[in-house]
Amino acid sequence: MIRFLRQQAWVLGLLALLVVLFIATKIIQPNYGASDFTALMRAVLPYAFAVAAQAIVVIGGGIDLSIASMMAVTSVTAAVMMNGASEEFALVVIPFVLLLGFAMGALNGILIVVTRVPDIVVTLAMLFVYQGLALLILGSPGGAAAVWLKTMIAGTVPIPGVPDWITMWIPNALVLLVVLLAAVWIPLKRSHIGLSIYAIGSSELAAFRSGVPVARTKIIAYGIGGLFAAMGGLALTISTGIGAPIPGPYLLASVAAVVLGGVVLGGGRGGLVGPIIAVFILRLLRTDLTLLSVDPNATTIIEGTIMVVVVMLGAFLTMRGRSS
Amino acid sequence: MAKNYGAVAALKNASLSVLPGEVHALMGANGAGKSTLVKILTGAIRHDRGTILVRGKAHEVRSPGDARKAGLLPVYQEPSLIPDLDVLSNLKLTRTPIEAFRSWVKELGVPELDLRETARDIPLAIQRVLDLARALAVEPDVLLLDEMTAALPADLAERVLGVVKRQGQAGRSVIFISHRFVEIAAVCNRATVLRDGETVGVVDIEAGVEERIVELMLGAKIEKARAAQRKANEATSVPVDAGTRIEVKNLRVGTKLQDVSFELKNGEVAGVVALEGQGQDELFAALAGSTKPSGGTIEVDGKAVKFSHPVDAVRAGIAYVPGDRSEALAMKQSVRENIALPFSASVRNWGPINKKRESETVNNAIQRLQIDTRAQREVQRLSGGNQQKVTIARWIAADARTILCFDPTRGIDVGTKQEIYKLLRQLADQGKSVLYYTSELDEVQLVCDRAIVIFGGKVVDVMPADIADEPALTRAAYGLPRDATANVGVLAGAGEAQP
């Protein structure tokens, strides 16, 4: 138990910070209610997938700058395919788009492994390639999304026997996020390939010597990153009802939340829960600052400052914990 | 086996044959090709020519995974546990049977191991033992141990040697790489000796065989060394006793450097001779201020000093010249800028650089060194030898009183080597002192006044240059008596487990 607490200290700390932020929100805006939370959740959804995508790549010792562009490609592809098509056709669109995301991510990985060009350069180049691709598919925001998909992330979950005042705080979007992430992450974490991703991130040489196929593992890590990015792209299309060829600020947000979430840039350490909580913190913080009607320019300064302080504080506490 | 790196042949014609149930030593001087051969056998690098046969069947070993399948399992010098994973995950990663691992850990004498501990938090020595236990747990046909006992405390080392010996008795094979004759005598049956990338002999381990092994390792160099010695005796001058510049007392650094004491006099070039990994890196790092010692004292001009940063060493007039030039030079800057850097970079000289003084000093240094090039050229375009001259020149320009040279002539042509020797001798004649680590033993008599031999983290011998020929240095570096005739034979007890 004590070991569990120590290992998860960072995540628990973030959770506490999130609770504090919720309380602060309630104080700033006494009528902040379930519907506001549902709205926040829907806004968080694409960010959360972007963060998951970045987290898995960073754990494997890499970085992917093309995540937002991959989200744009998958978003417009889904919107164009579903435009004017039947409701059932969406059942074909979703697996296709997820596969497309995996393929784009894996292509990044293959280029890095084969050309030996640094990951940051390869994925920066691919950022532009995928962005161009998204604009070729759909020149301006448009397309459509199946209605049943749109209703899926709206509203809350009715659970029989549980009173409304509880279920109204469980938005569909949150359930969807948790289910999808868990469906990929939990089997991965328990598999040999998941272990291998942590291994190559921690020490590529030691992993190679332990018989880990380094190149293949790296490609798969990027591929799974692409898969999460595709989920993010789908979430974008579904929540807005149209495809967006120009990606939002998901790239920098993903790196920020990954770092704040306790994943070490350089690889090998961290998980998925921390970054996801971190993305909630960053979004809620922005909401609070907006509610306080802080100048939007000052908002970014405050966000950046809080990130640096939290990460530094965390590093300081970890070091003290190690030496004692 | 043959392996080339570009034009350099790391292995030319190496053969190794290990019998079932045999503990086989692989020996050779630095650069003989031992580590290349091990890397090939374990799939870390690909060979150019040659075959690997396991039980008479040819095997393609393209990756560490292939080597595992062929039954070849290495334990490297640096632990290969994944630092951020716990022990259990590390075992799962290599699909190691956990129960077998546990029993080996117990057998190797590690008390209370928590499988949930993160590898990074485990002491290095224990990590190495866990590495060994992990390899033993899959019952490999051939176990490759590269300097397994280095950096292990004595009790653990003893356990390890016991286990290695029993592996042989149980009919499994071990390839055992070690610089310590005592260990080889205790556990090995035969030894293969490499020299310059070729197998030069296979000997049975028996009393008195260490002389034969040293001879094989050196080859024709024994005669050459004698000739060089006669020449060197004329070149080296005995330094005038001008007081002690640096005195090192009972210095300990990390796990490698155990207890080293010596003094460096003004006007002296003292050679440091050691096999790889005997603590010389740590010694130089401590003197250059980049590592903090864990015990002992360093005195400069009779005053105890504590360096917490290389700047402190530079202020005390101690300059470090690394073997790897790229560590010391700004490769894309000009020769002039590189030479000017240390003396204009001191804290007091913030602000504009005094161009006149700079060019005087730099020109002076360049002239003295005969760097045959214009000073405006980028350093990376110079030959290795000229680059090394620039590294030394900058410290002359900065007026350092002591120069620490760590294998400075590695990969440099003969002519330039001679110039560097001459330069260092000139510096000594001016009263400066030089500490000179070299992996090429014949250099000792060409530049040094004395040789300090380090083995197992301790000074085992100090000899004046006139007797420090290659055979004597080699024997001393392996922890043997320096004189062949005085050798009472550490292998007398061969066959008995006496680590």
Please, could you describe this protein's structure?
The complex is a heterodimer of chains A (324) and B (499). With 324 residues, chain A is an all-alpha fold. Chain A has a domain at 36-248 and 263-268. Chain A is built from 15 helices and no strands. Chain A is globular. With 499 residues, chain B is of the alpha/beta class. Chain B folds into two domains: 3-205, Rossmann fold (3-Layer(aba) Sandwich), CATH 3.40.50.300; 239-480, 3-Layer(aba) Sandwich (Rossmann fold), CATH 3.40.50. In chain B, helix 4 (98-107) packs across helix 5 (124-137) and helix 14 packs across helix 15 (384-397). The model of chain B is unreliable at 487-499 (pLDDT under 50). Chains A and B meet through helix 10 and helix 11 of A and helix 2 and helix 3 of B.
List SSEs of chain A in N-to-C order: HHHHHHHHHHHHHHH
What gap, in angstroms, lies between the N and C termini of chain A? 19 Å
Give the tally of β-strands of chain A: 0
Number of self-contained structural domains of chain B: 2
Annotation field: number of helices of chain A: 15
Largest interface: A-B, 20 and 21 residues
**What is the helical fraction of chain A, as a range of percent?**
over 70%
User: What is the total tally of β strands of chain B?
Assistant: 20
Q: Which geometry of chain A do the CA atoms define? A: globular
Query: Kindly state the mean pLDDT of chain B as a whole number?
Result: 82
Major sheet description of chain A = none
Number of helices of chain B: 18
CATH fold call of the largest domain in chain B: Rossmann fold
Shape by Cα distribution of chain B: globular
Cα-atom Rg of chain B, whole angstroms?
24 Å
